[in-house]
């Protein structure tokens, strides 16, 4: 049977990776309700109209076997002078016909809007899940980390895409990792009353998350592809964070009463999502409760230090607090979201902490 495409059919879009990869895959989907609002122009503040995002599903004999989004991030194009369209959520069976039709649909969508290139995966911006996995396919991803089987990169190359912007994700073994040592710089910060850790309880999570957004925008300003995240965009992504966060394992450090540095970690939700198949059902509360009491994996979503305080020993102070808190709370491993090869300082920090490589990823680009 030939492959057919459907546009904006969310049920088949959600089901596609489960059908394409099978029950034994390490792939983990976002919760169904979250994914639906992510790709909705009326709900997601990243988009101003339906003309900025769409999605396609490939079906063979009525069974969804692949999917893709096509979208534009206008703020990125404006800030960097690009004329780029994006693809995202490219999940597909090892089926050349399905992959070709999906990629062509995204490319045609971009051409009709005058874009001169297309790049992905972006799910849906550079500050969310990005990339296509290109190594270590036997290692389970953490929350907010991309997973794709080996054939996805091959299908992209067969359709004229080339890998760019290499990235690495890391994993830290907390059972053997030592917390950063306190040297003279770090002790000076600890002794300085101008520095103080902000209180973090479940009730204060929304406030601390907005502190984190300010630090994110300041500390990532010079990173490739970064665009400042608005209050609306940040809280759209993190609105349910207070229910999943463990307040013990995140920290915001203030300087003279203003947010100065932070590390935001959350328990790894992927085992819970796998158990529930990313759907809300009668057993979901029970699975969530069981996961809460048995989770041994955490993931570092991001860390940052305000530029005017960088190089003064602030980051090791915050990192030490977090590593000790993770150990005390019983976590055994800590995953880290992507770091680009161009970010030598962050890569050096990972090497110094003896973090081990988890996955290699690349973006894939094609001229239109």
Automatic annotation (TrEMBL):
Per UniProt, the keywords (alphabetical) are: Transferase
Q: Which Gene Ontology MF annotations are present?
A: transferase activity
Q: Indicate whether Transferase appears among the record's keywords.
A: yes
InterPro entries with a match to the protein in the record: Acyl_CoA_acyltransferase, BcerS-like
Note the superkingdom of the native organism.
Bacteria
Descriptive protein name = GNAT family N-acetyltransferase
The organism's taxonomy opens as: Bacteria, Pseudomonadati, Pseudomonadota, Alphaproteobacteria, Hyphomicrobiales
């Amino acid at each position: 049977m030939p492959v057919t495409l459907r546009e904006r059919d969310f049920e088949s879009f959600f089901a596609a990776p489960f059908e394409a990869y099978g029950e034994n895959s390490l792939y983990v989907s976002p919760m169904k309700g979250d994914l639906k609002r992510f790709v909705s122009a009326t709900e997601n503040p990243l988009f101003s109209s339906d003309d900025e995002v769409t999605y396609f599903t490939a079906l063979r004999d009525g069974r969804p076997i692949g999917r893709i989004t096509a979208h534009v991030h206008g703020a990125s194009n404006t800030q960097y002078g690009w004329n780029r369209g994006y693809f995202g959520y490219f999940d597909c069976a090892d089926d050349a016909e399905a992959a070709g039709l999906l990629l062509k649909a995204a490319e045609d969508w971009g051409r009709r809007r005058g874009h001169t290139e297309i790049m992905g995966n972006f799910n849906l911006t550079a500050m969310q899940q990005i990339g296509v996995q290109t190594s270590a396919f036997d290692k389970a991803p953490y929350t907010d980390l991309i997973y794709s089987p080996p054939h996805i990169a091959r299908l992209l190359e067969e359709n004229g895409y080339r890998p760019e912007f290499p990235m690495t994700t890391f994993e830290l073994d907390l059972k053997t990792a030592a917390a950063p040592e306190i040297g003279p710089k770090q002790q000076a910060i600890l002794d300085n009353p101008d520095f103080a850790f902000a209180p973090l309880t479940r009730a204060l999570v929304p406030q601390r998350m907005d502190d984190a957004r300010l630090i994110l925008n300041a500390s990532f300003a010079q990173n490739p592809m970064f665009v400042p995240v608005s209050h609306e965009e940040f809280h759209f992504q993190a609105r349910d964070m207070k229910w999943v966060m463990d307040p013990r394992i995140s920290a915001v450090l203030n300087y003279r009463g203003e947010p100065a540095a932070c590390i935001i970690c959350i328990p790894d939700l992927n085992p819970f999502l796998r158990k529930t198949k990313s759907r809300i059902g009668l057993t979901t509360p029970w699975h969530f409760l069981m996961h809460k009491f048995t989770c041994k994996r955490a993931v570092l979503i991001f860390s940052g230090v305000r530029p005017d305080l960088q190089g003064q020993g602030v980051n090791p102070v915050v990192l030490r607090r977090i590593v000790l808190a993770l150990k005390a709370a019983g976590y055994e491993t800590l995953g880290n979201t992507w770091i680009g090869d161009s970010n030598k300082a962050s890569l050096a920090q990972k090497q110094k902490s003896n973090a081990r490589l988890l996955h290699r990823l690349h973006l894939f680009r094609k001229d239109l």
